[in-house]
Amino acid sequence: MGLRERVGEALKQAMRDKDTARLATLRLINAAIKDQDIAKRGTDAEAGGVDDADILAILGKMTKQRLESARAYEEGGRLDLAERERNEITVIEEFLPRQLDDEEVSAAIDAAIAETGAESIRDMGRIMGLLKQQYTGQMDFGAVGPRVKDKLS
């Protein structure tokens, strides 16, 4: 079962359970997926919509946005809104694969460097492309970039 179907099933179950907070978050996820479907259809006439890798990217972006919002709400003293954002993150993360720990990320970087035969910083784009292809949703690529750069330097 693909991610789109899993989100749809979770949405139906939340409706049956009358879980309004979960339902609202699942509807946001569904809307973001449909927005990307429409955007992709506009640029590529033969596109059938977003695939699971695109959905993982959407979910990762949504999680990052909510983390930033929760931090801003906490700094502003709005703990109720920060808690709501963290609850939304919990729902979104149900659909994301398990995040790799530091050792696993280092091993993945080493494997990507070996696979691409990278020797200098100029090869960083190939390494990042390979990592994104294999580990979408499993690591924070904003944090991985500097680590790859350090290993190539």
Explain what the structure shows:
The chain is an all-alpha fold and 153 residues long. Helices cover 76% and strands 0% of the residues. The protein is globular and about 55 Å long. The mean pLDDT is 87.
Helix-strand blueprint:
Layout: H1 3-17, H2 20-43, H3 52-75, H4 79-93, H5 102-116, H6 124-135, H7 141-152
Helix pairs in contact: 1-2, 2-3, 2-4, 3-4, 5-6, 5-7, 6-7
| Relative helix content | over 70%
Question: What's the main sheet like?
Answer: none
Structural class, please?
Answer: mainly alpha
Order of helices and strands: HHHHHHH
Q: Supply Rg.
A: 18 Å
Question: Please, what is the CATH homologous superfamily of the largest domain?
Answer: Uncharacterised protein YqeY/AIM41, N-terminal domain
Which CATH architecture of the largest domain?
Orthogonal Bundle
Number of domains: 2
Which runs of at least 5 residues are low in confidence (pLDDT < 50)? none
Number of strands: 0
- The CATH class designation of the largest domain is Mainly Alpha
Number of helices, where a helix is a run of at least 4 consecutive DSSP H or I residues: 7
Give the CA-based shape.
globular
Strand share of the residues?
A: under 5%
The separation of the N and C termini measures 42 Å
Supply database-style keywords.
single chain, 153 residues, mainly alpha, Hypothetical Protein Yqey, Chain: A, domain1, Arc Repressor Mutant, subunit A, 2 domains, 7 helices
